[in-house]
Amino acid sequence: MTTIPARVLDPLTGSDADLAGERAVKRRRLLDILDRTGRDFLLLTSNTAMTWYLGGSRLHISLAGDPVAVLLVDRERDHLVTFNNEADRLIREELPADVVVHPVPWHGSMHEVVRRLSSSTPLDEAEVKRELRAARQSLLPVEAALYEDLNREVAEALTDVLSAARPHTPERQVAAELGARVIAMGAEPLVLLCNGRERSAFRHPLPTSSPLGRRAMAVVCARRNGMVANVTRWVRFDGSTAGERDAEARIAAVEADIFAATVPGARLDGIFDVIRSSYDAHGFGPDQWRLHHQGGPAGYAGRDPRVTASTDDEVVLNQAFTWNPSGPGVKIEDTVLLTADGVRVLSVDERWPTTEVNGLQRPVTLEV
C-alpha cells in the first residue's frame, strides 16, 4: 500500500482549492450511492467513471484500450489498484493526493487485490450505471471552466487549419494538422474525421488521401481533463449554391428545435421525439434521423449517453450536450452547456462566420 504525495498540478487543472472542492462533492455523490444501495464498497472500472471521479486523471495507455487501473471506493478512502509498471507515473503525475495506491505485478490480477480489500462484495459499476451518469450530469464550476477552455481551443484549431486549406489539400493532411494541434494543447484526439466533396455522403468519413475539392467537412473530438469536446466545421472554396444554403439553414433549424427542447426537467426520450419530428418539419423527411445518431449529453464521454427512444434521463442545469443533426451533405455540431440563462455554446471562435438562429450565433460554412 502506497500513500500518494501531493501531485504536481498541470496549469490547466486549476488551483488546489478548486480541486479539493470538486473532489469532496464527487466523493459525497458516490457515498450517497452507497447509502441508497446499502453497500460499503463501489468498484469503478471504466475510463468515463474514473476520470470523472479523479478530476481528469489519465488512467489509459492505449486510447483504444481498457484502463490500466480499477478504483475501489469505500466509506473511508479510495483505493487505486494498478500494475507495478504504471504506479509511479500515476502517483507522480495523475492522482489526487488522498488516493491510496496498491501496485500489482504486471502479470497479476487487479481484481484479486480488490477482493482482499473488500470485506463484502463491491457494488459493480455496471449495477449503478444510471446513478453514476446522474452523478456526473451537472458540471461543477471548475469543470465547466476547463471544458469551455478546451472547446474554445478546438474551435480555434479548426478555424486555423480550415482557413489554410485549399481544394487540393488531402483529407489526411487536414486530419494530421488538427491532430497535431490537439496534442499540442495537451489533449487527446479521440476522433478526427474529414471528407472532401466526393465523400460528402458519408456521416463518419475517416480521412483518406482524396483532395478536399470545392467543399469539405472536418470533425474533432478531443479529450482533456477527462472531458470530451465535439465540434464540426465546414469549408467551401468557390461560393455556395442555393441548394447548399437552403440545406444548411434547414439543418440549423433542426438544431434550434433541439436546443429549445433542452431544458431542465425534460427527458431525453422526449427530446428524441422532437428530433424525429423536426427533420420532417424542416424538409428532410421522416426517416433522416435513422441515418446517424443524434448526439446527447456530453462531458466525460463523447455522448453520455446517446439519445434514443429508450433513454429517459432527465436534463439538469449545468449539463453539457453535443447534439449533431445531419442530413445529406450537411451537419451541425457544437458542445454546449445548459445554464440558467439557456443554452450557451462552448466551442466558439469569434473568427468563424456565424448567423443568428433563435438568438444564438451558429456557425455557417467558411468561405475561403
TrEMBL record:
One GO MF term attached to the UniProt entry: aminopeptidase activity
Peptidase M24 domain residues: 151-340
InterPro entries the UniProt entry points to: Creatinase/aminopeptidase-like, Pept_M24, Peptidase_M24B
Domain of life where this protein originates: Bacteria
Keyword Protease: yes
One Pfam family linked to the record: Peptidase_M24
Alphabetically ordered keywords of this record: Aminopeptidase, Hydrolase, Protease
Protein name: Xaa-Pro aminopeptidase
Protein's organism: Arthrobacter subterraneus
